[in-house]
Amino acid sequence: MSTGAIIGIVVAAVVIIALVAVVVRMQSRRKHLRERFGPEYDRTIAEHPRKDAERELLEREKEHAKLDIRPLEPQARDRYAAQWRSVQEQFVDRPAPAVQEADRLVTVVMAERGYPTDGSHEDRVRRLSVEHASTMEHYRAAHQVRGKENASTEELREAMVHYRDLFTDLLGGDGHRGGNDGHAVDGDAPHRPTAKR
55: phi > 0 → left, psi -120 to 50 → alpha, else beta; which? Predict the structure, then answer.
């Protein structure tokens, strides 16, 4: 076999190995992003071309790594859980203001955990999605109802349930749901008032 043929075979083998390495790396990255972001991965892929969506999610991870995210102290968890119960109790008589207060309380807990709360709602979603991806659809749904001018009582009740899911997740502090460590938010969904407000 000639030297040229051997060089050609070696170059072809190197190219094939490089291509296989790239494909394996892409599959590994995709698997990592799917596991990390769950439904948020699927949502982002549905909104953007796969390559752009995965780049976006990787950028979120990089930004998140720069943040000083910390768990809540037990006293703070207890204090916020009590505040949440108060907000739920207010819902019966004042559903719309209770939903506004739920949003405010979620933002306060985010800030205490170390998440920047400036910018748009989507900025907050981006920041939270790295560790709290499973509750981002709840946050979006609650925010959508909160911004609605004439939301029905049922829509407001559903928004409270959505806020509660995110709030409980944030309260947990270490990636676990709040209910797993004795600091659950008490109570079920707000009771339905009999009349629309």
Answer: alpha
